[in-house]
C-alpha cells in the first residue's frame, strides 16, 4: 500500500549559488556520504529530501540530514532515514522507500514513494 508520494524539482544553478554564498549550508543539508558529490547530484538529493517530506505530509521537525540518498547496486538510488524522519515514517507505517532521481538541462528532479 502506498502511504505517500512526493516529488520535487531543483534548479541546479540556484543550489550551486546558495552553496557558494552560504557558509555551512552543505554541512546542514547533506550527510558525510553525500557532501563530496557534484552539484548536479547534490541537487537531485536535495530534491529527494524535499520529496520525502512531502511523502510524509511535511510534519514539523524533519531534518535534511535525516534522509540520506546513497548509490546502490547498478547505480540505483537508495534512501536511508534516521531521526525524526524515521520516527514519522514508522508512525505512518512506512516499511519501504522507492526513489528515482534525474538531472538534465539545469534541473534535478526526484520522485519518492513511501510504501507500507
Automatic annotation (TrEMBL):
Major localization listed first in the record, in broad terms: cytoplasm
Protein name, UniProt field: Holo-[acyl-carrier-protein] synthase
Reactions this protein catalyses: apo-[ACP] + CoA = holo-[ACP] + adenosine 3',5'-bisphosphate + H(+)
Residue stretches making up the 4'-phosphopantetheinyl transferase domain: 4-111
Enzyme class, first EC level, given as a word: transferase
InterPro entries: 4-PPantetheinyl_Trfase_dom (IPR008278), 4-PPantetheinyl_Trfase_dom_sf (IPR037143), ACPS (IPR002582), Ppantetheine-prot_Trfase_dom (IPR004568)
Binding site for Mg(2+): 8, 50
Gene3D superfamilies registered for this protein in UniProt: 4'-phosphopantetheinyl transferase domain
Higher taxonomy: Bacteria, Bacillati, Actinomycetota, Actinomycetes, Streptosporangiales
Keywords: Cytoplasm, Fatty acid biosynthesis, Fatty acid metabolism, Lipid biosynthesis, Lipid metabolism, Magnesium, Metal-binding, Transferase
Enzyme Commission number: 2.7.8.7
Keyword Ribosomal protein: no
Subcellular location: Cytoplasm
Superkingdom of origin: Bacteria
Protein family: Belongs to the P-Pant transferase superfamily. AcpS family.
Cofactors named for this entry: Mg(2+)
Organism field: Sphaerisporangium flaviroseum
Pfam families to which the protein is assigned, alphabetical: ACPS
Protein purpose: Transfers the 4'-phosphopantetheine moiety from coenzyme A to a Ser of acyl-carrier-protein.
Amino acid at each position: 500500500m502506498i502511504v505517500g508520494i512526493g516529488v520535487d524539482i531543483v534548479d541546479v544553478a540556484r543550489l550551486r549559488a546558495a552553496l557558494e554564498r552560504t557558509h555551512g549550508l552543505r554541512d546542514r543539508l547533506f550527510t558525510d556520504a553525500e557532501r563530496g558529490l557534484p552539484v548536479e547530484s547534490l541537487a537531485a538529493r536535495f530534491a529527494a529530501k524535499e520529496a520525502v517530506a512531502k511523502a510524509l505530509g511535511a510534519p514539523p521537525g524533519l531534518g535534511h540530514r535525516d534522509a540520506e540518498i546513497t548509490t546502490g547496486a547498478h547505480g540505483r538510488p537508495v534512501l536511508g532515514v534516521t531521526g525524526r524522519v524515521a520516527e514519522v515514517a514508522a508512525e505512518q507505517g512506512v516499511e519501504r522507500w522507492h526513489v528515482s532521481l534525474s538531472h538534465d538541462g539545469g534541473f534535478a528532479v526526484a520522485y519518492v514513494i513511501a510504501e507500507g
